[in-house]
Design brief:
Number of helices: 3
Shape: elongated
Order of helices and strands: HHEHEEEEE
Helix content: 10-25%
Radius of gyration: 30 Å
Strand content: 35-45%
Low-confidence stretches: none
Distance between the termini: 93 Å
Length: 191
């Protein structure tokens, strides 16, 4: 009886050592202990961080352009890109596809029409960290035409198709133009 007990104890000890010496629980060198075990992260949080970086990298910054010249163009030259319009549309609706097999939204055959509705320049003023500058405003009305397909998988599976869906999104393109003596010529004293 005692030998069976010792054999079971020895087998448990060997199994425990085998588990503890493999993978994340290696005992050679410094370890993080319980913090070395990877935790699963939801794809939602990963996509949220990627979207936040995408927006801050492309669309959250206000560019500072050179000064306006006499007789030069004073209109905004670049309308919003299709990507920027689509991001504004998704942020306004707060829906990016849905939950697979429960509720999904698909948008197909997308057409985007962009119209400039305002283009004006503010008078020069001193902006902190920039200096004297003029703010150039350009407002666009973007109409998005698409086919929307909503697939509901529970409790009663069905599909809803709207072939003539349309949404309107307003996008503002603002940027600064430097104003005044930008080059600080030879005779000016600038500290």
């Amino acid at each position: 009886m005692r030998t069976k007990y010792l054999a079971a104890l020895f087998a448990t000890l060997v199994a425990g050592m085998a588990v503890m010496s493999t993978g994340c629980f290696t005992t050679l060198g410094p370890t993080l202990g319980i913090f070395s075990i990877p935790l699963p992260v939801s794809p939602y949080w990963q996509k949220l961080q990627e979207d936040k970086h995408h927006i801050s990298e492309r669309y959250s910054r206000v560019p500072i352009l050179g000064p306006l010249t006499q007789g030069g163009p004073v209109t905004a030259l670049d309308p919003p890109s299709d990507d920027e319009v689509w991001w504004a549309f998704e942020r306004a609706r707060s829906v990016q596809g849905g939950i697979p097999f429960l509720y999904e939204t698909q948008r197909n055959n997308v057409t985007i029409i962009k119209e400039k509705i305002a283009d004006y320049i503010d008078p020069p003023r001193v902006v902190p960290l920039i200096g004297p500058a003029q703010l150039h405003h350009a407002h666009y009305k973007c109409t998005i035409y698409f086919e929307e397909r909503r697939i509901v998988g529970w409790p009663i599976p069905h599909t809803l198709i709207n072939e003539d869906a349309a949404e309107v999104v307003y996008v503002d393109h603002n940027h600064f133009h430097m104003a005044g003596d930008v080059d600080y010529g030879k005779n000016s004293t600038h500290y």
